[in-house]
What we know:
By secondary structure, the chain is mainly α. The chain has helices at about 5-10, 35-55, 60-70, 110-125, 130-145, 150-170, 175-195, 200-220, 230-240, 245-255, 255-290, 295-305, 315-330, 335-355, 365-390, 390-400, 405-415, 425-455, 460, and strands at about 75-80, 85-90, 100-105.
Amino acid sequence: MGITQRARGVLRRRDPVETVGTRNAVYGPALPEESTVHLVMDLGLRIGEVQMASGAGASDVTATIIGVVGAYGLPHCEVDVIYTSITVSCYRGTEEVPITSLRVVRNRSIDYTRLADVEDLVRKITAGEISASDAYAELDRITSAPHPFPRWVATLAWAGMAASLSVLLGGGDPRLAAVAAVATALVDRIGRMLNKRALPFFFQQAVGGMIATSIALACYAAKLLPTPALAVAASIIVLLSGMTVVGSMQDAITGYNVTAAGRIAELALMSAGLIAGVVLALYVGVQIFDQFGGDTANLLQTVGAARIESTVLLIPVQALAGASTSACFALASYAPPRPLVIAGLGGAVAAGVSGALTSTALGVNPVLAGAIATTVVGFTGGVVARRLRIPALVIAVSGVAPLLPGLATYRGLYEIAVVSDPAGMSTLMLAAATGLALGAGVVLGEYLAQPVRSRLGRLERRLAGPRLSGPLRPTRRRLE
């Protein structure tokens, strides 16, 4: 037989047809009936949706869903979380098609009472105290319940937050707090009207920034304010406070890069809308002021004289203003009474530590001081929250609110829009770096709190990373 014929014979050979009996079949775990599997998976998806809407990290949502479905007899499920959807796939071996379910996260309104109730439900589920059907009915009751108090209470809370921020930023004049509160309340009510008409959030942020800046400039022109800078900065912080800075950093640090990119993109878009509104109001306000023969040079000098950090107030007053800021933010986010008090304490710690570090005696860089302060908040909140059975996420997000870089953002916008100074870009970059440092500090503090909660046992090595929401005890399946 020649070489050519041998080569043709090799090419014609085929592997024998593989049948069920000739291959190594992998059988999945014993599962409940298919209707129960669908019910349990939908229960986990809906719980994850509530957490995502409240700003929880993707790692927390993944761990929670795995814990819920594992408690009801689905030991091997794969969970994929991105910013707009959650997918759960139940493995049934190589002989059967996996059961997959998906849920899109559309609603992102924060309600910390709803989050706390869901956390309690998750604890009951993982402890085996409630059946799947009863848990589904309880979750339906939680998600369909109205907010615990009227909307006007939240509006007053936002106004109180702006007034507290004006004090924290260095404004001792009561008129400044009053103007900041009134402007913020008006922005909240107008924003609610625009939201009912489905106006995109980018334009809502632009309208809010424009209204807050216009009111502050008008009050300054009427000699009701010594400077409009602090009033505008307080309103900017209020508009920035609802964004998921902490969740973005948690997702980036724990390896959920797609979700982190989605959160950061939304954060950048909302900030861009706010910047557009503030810049437009500054430009128009200066033009009008000049047309009526006002002292434009004095206005520009006064507006641009605001400092990024405040050294006027004593540390106890700063801590008190920080506590009021965080408590008002938690109240505006519909937090229950006990988390509300703890959130206020977290704000006091953040403002007090940051004020002490940036004081003349120590002179620490504001970015580093903010990171250290939020690390302390994340650590203490992580230890206290689990003992009191309240979501650590409430303390983390509320504790960051007093330190958000509203004044640096305003100063950068002023330098770019009014003075045409290229240094404004550096100031805006400083504001962005401060925001990222705040989020990273909270996540680091929560990570450092884990050995304290778990008493340095084996439980610590099985945790998936910093946990701000969901069950603390991990499942038997390791979370990669």
